[in-house]
Write a structure and sequence with these properties.
Elements: E1 2-3, H1 18-32, E2 42-47, E3 50-56, E4 61-66, H2 74-86, E5 90-95, H3 96-101, H4 103-114
Parallel strand pairs: 1-5, 4-5
Antiparallel strand pairs: 2-3, 3-4
Length: 116
């Protein structure tokens, strides 16, 4: 699993409620632009009992956008990631704040992973 650790910043407690939706919408716009290169992502894609924020099934790549709620559910996230990896997927996780403020860095990590 790759956790874009170099991009992670401390989550702000009590952040704006729109941030998760805004971060996902922003990343979705960037991921959809990859269609021109033959890379197709799906949004809210079901895999077993879990729903991935974004998934490129043909590339076996999942991207998760995490907010502060993930600070309190680390065990669940580890279990979920283990399940997804057992199905052959690679999982990238980014904080909402990184998607909103460092989208070029986030997309750099995504593109690098797609080249593997």
């Amino acid at each position: 699993m790759h956790c874009a650790g170099e991009l992670r910043t401390p989550a702000l407690a009590g952040g704006a409620r729109e941030e998760p939706e805004a971060a996902e919408a922003k990343l979705w716009a960037y991921l959809r632009s990859l269609k021109e290169d033959g890379i197709h992502f799906r949004r809210q894609h079901a895999i077993g009992p879990y729903i991935a924020d974004f998934c490129a099934p043909s590339r076996k790549l999942i991207i998760e956008v995490d907010g502060s709620q993930h600070l309190n559910q680390e065990e669940y996230d580890v279990e979920r990631t283990a399940f997804l990896e057992s199905k052959g997927y690679r999982v990238l996780r980014f904080w909402n704040t990184d998607v909103m403020n460092k989208i070029n860095d986030v997309m750099g990590v995504v593109l690098e992973e797609l080249e593997r």
